[in-house]
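Here comes an entry:

___
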Amino acid sequence: MILSAIVAVAQNGVIGNNNQLIWHITEDLKYFRAKTTAHTIIMGRKSYESVGKALPNRRNIVISRSTDFTALDCEVVNSLEAAISLCSDENEVFIAGGGEIYRAALSQCDRLYITEISQAYEGSTTFPEVDKSQWIEVSREDFNGGVKYPHPFSFVVYERVK
């Protein structure tokens, strides 16, 4: 199984504010959907609550420390390890946030799909710092802006150096 993280990260490492996305990049949402459809996504409770529902055409696993938490059309587990163990027979599984889950999973990830946003934002949630010596960039697609987003961004895929 390939364990991948998929995330949009501002220039200063910010990924969200008060449990919400800060930006709306139509192209990034389509990229996320294209990469994760027909795969399993693992997310924390706060990320699930910010989305408000299971994402369609994907297996949704939500991590929550609360034993009575339920999420419609999702499997709920109490640890990252439990979530990953449910997916051992799958080709690729995506870590889809939030900050705590990314921090816990990064050392286990084989691949990173990062939308690098060339703009800094104020926010309460950050992506952990990536030691670039541990990763090799395998693809990059640069944009000067989006249909509705005025700043440059890039879709970058990194794979862990073996």
Summary: The first strand starts at residue 2 and ends at 10. Residues 26-36 form the longest helix (11 residues).
